[in-house]
Each structure stands twice: as C-alpha cells, then as structure tokens.
C-alpha cells in the first residue's frame, strides 16, 4: 500500500513523499526561517500488529516523538 505524506509548516508544504508500504521512511526538509533550519522526520510503519505509524521529529540534534493521530 502506498501513502502520500505531506509535511506542513505554518500552512505551507515543505516536503511531500509517497511512502511504500511498511518499514522506515526518512523525510528531510527545511523550516522556512532565516537562516533555514534543516529537520528530519522518521516514519516507521509497522509490518505486523498496529497499523498506526510511529513518527519522530529530529531538530537541533533532539528527537521528539510525535503523538499518534488517527486519520479518517
């Protein structure tokens, strides 16, 4: 199953990617600031069990786990 992932910052799309099934995807983008600030989002889609992906935001060498959200 393929899923489109969009990351919005202040209502603007900063990265868009199509994920391919289960496993780990890494998105890299920049915050639209001056100077621009690079960040990563790691999305892990489990192969078995829960179908809720786990997301971690890496910014300034700090990892922040993002809360799970159901999208209907």
Provide keyphrases for this structure:
mainly beta; four-stranded antiparallel sheet; two-stranded antiparallel ribbon
Short overview:
This protein has 72 residues and is mainly β. The protein is built from no helices and six strands.
The assembly state of the depicted protein chains is single chain
Q: Mean of the pLDDT scores?
A: 84
Largest sheet: 4 strands, antiparallel
Strand order within the widest sheet?
3-4-5-6
Strand content is over 45%
**Helix share of residues?**
under 10%
Overall outline = globular
Count of β-strands: 6
Low-confidence stretches: none
Query: With helices defined by DSSP (H or I, 4 residues minimum), what is the helix count?
Result: 0
> What does the radius of gyration come to?
13 Å
Describe the protein's topology.
Elements lengths: L1 E8 L2 E9 L2 E9 L5 E9 L8 E6 L2 E5 L6
Antiparallel strand pairs: 1-2, 3-4, 4-5, 5-6
Outline the structure in words:
- The structure is a single chain.
- The strands form two sheets. Strands 3-4-5-6 form a four-stranded antiparallel β-sheet, with no helix packed on it. The protein has a two-stranded antiparallel sheet with strand order 1-2.
- The two termini are 16 Å apart.
- The model has no long low-confidence stretch (mean pLDDT 84).
- The chain is an all-beta fold and 72 residues long.
- The chain is built from no helices and six strands.
- It is globular and about 40 Å long.
